[in-house]
Design brief:
The chain is mainly α. It contains six helices and no strands. The protein is elongated, with a radius of gyration of 39 Å.
Length: 209
C-alpha cells in the first residue's frame, strides 16, 4: 500500500473553493440572486484557482516593482468593495477561515515568497472574502521621490541680517547705448510720430503746374 503524497498548495486552494462554489450556489438561490450572477461569481473564483496554479507551476522569478503606468479600467461586472462576497453570502465564512489558515502555513508562505506572481490571484481573492493580507502578499512600497533642493539662503551682513535686494531700475533710468554712442536723455517722453501716409491718399503738398 503506497502512501499518499501531501496535497500541494494549489490543490488545497482548489478544494477550499470547491466547497465555496456549493455554498454560493445554494445560498445565492435561497437569497434570490440571479442565476447568471451566481455563475459569474463561480467563474471568477475558478479563475483565481487557475491563475494561482499557473503561477505556482512557473519558474521562480525575483520580485520586481512594476512601472507606475495608468491601466485602463476594466468593465465593472462584479462588486468591488472589500469583503463583498462575505457580506452577500454569509455562509462563505467557513471558506474564509480555511483560506486564512492556508495562507498562514509555512509551505504556502514559502511558495508565495519564491513566486511573487501568485499574489495576482491571492490578493483579489483575499479582498473578495475580507481577509487581511499576510506579510508575504503585501506589495513592496515604492520609493518616494526626493523633494527638490531648497534654494540657498541670502548672505548675511555684519549685523547678522540678510542683505537687502538691489533696487530695480526705475522708469527714468538711463540705459547704456547699444551702439556705444552718447547716452540718451529719456526723462521726457519722445514727441509723437506722424501717422504713416498711405499711397492711396492724395499728397498734401501742392502740385506744381
Amino acid at each position: 500500500m503506497t502512501a499518499c503524497s501531501p496535497a500541494t498548495p494549489a490543490e488545497r486552494l482548489a478544494r477550499i473553493l470547491d466547497g465555496l462554489y456549493c455554498v454560493v450556489a445554494a445560498e445565492g438561490l435561497a437569497r434570490g440572486l440571479a442565476g447568471p450572477f451566481i455563475i459569474l461569481v463561480c467563474a471568477r473564483l475558478r479563475f483565481f484557482v487557475a491563475r494561482f496554479a499557473a503561477h505556482l507551476a512557473s519558474r521562480p522569478r525575483p520580485r520586481r516593482l512594476a512601472p507606475s503606468t495608468p491601466r485602463p479600467r476594466a468593465r465593472k461586472t462584479l462588486p468591488r468593495r472589500y469583503a463583498w462576497l462575505l457580506n452577500l453570502i454569509p455562509g462563505a465564512a467557513a471558506a474564509r477561515a480555511q483560506l486564512r489558515a492556508l495562507l498562514a502555513e509555512p509551505d504556502m508562505q514559502a511558495a508565495i515568497e519564491s513566486r511573487p506572481a501568485t499574489g495576482r490571484a491571492l490578493r483579489p481573492l483575499c479582498h473578495t472574502l475580507g481577509i487581511p493580507l499576510p506579510p508575504a502578499l503585501r506589495r513592496p512600497r515604492r520609493p518616494r521621490p526626493r523633494p527638490p533642493a531648497a534654494e540657498p539662503a541670502p548672505p548675511k551682513n555684519e549685523n547678522g541680517g540678510a542683505n537687502p535686494a538691489p533696487p530695480s531700475p526705475g522708469f527714468f533710468a538711463r540705459p547704456a547705448s547699444p551702439r556705444g554712442g552718447a547716452e540718451q536723455n529719456i526723462s521726457r517722453p519722445p514727441p509723437p510720430r506722424p501717422p504713416p501716409r498711405s499711397r492711396w491718399l492724395p499728397s498734401r503738398s501742392p502740385r506744381r503746374g
